[in-house]
Request: fold
Amino acid sequence: MPRAAISPKGMFAAGPYSHAIRTGHLVFLSGKTGTDGDGKLLGDSIAEQTKQTFANLQVVLQAAGLTLDHVVKCNVYLTNMADFAAMNAVYTEHFADPKPARTTVAVVALPGGAKVEIEMVAEAK
Reply:
């Protein structure tokens, strides 16, 4: 099946990857952290970084013609599981029921010293 890259204008790309790939009815979003358009991490708290991470993911979804309502799966990476409740509080604000499937794991480190990274899979009908 052919694949097409989704590249929002002005979004910082930190490496050799696409911000998202559409293949068939699915859009796979690369993991995003709470950075600004130049790749600078915004906010010190997990709540601030999670909010900015969602803002970045929404830019990618919008470039694909989608919204958070199209998301069917999320993977969340935290550098400290003690941040789970605070991340989860922000996460919950972004999705209507039924919420997407989700996996949350702890990792040793994330790019740029981020505390959270989130990747998504969305369905484009």
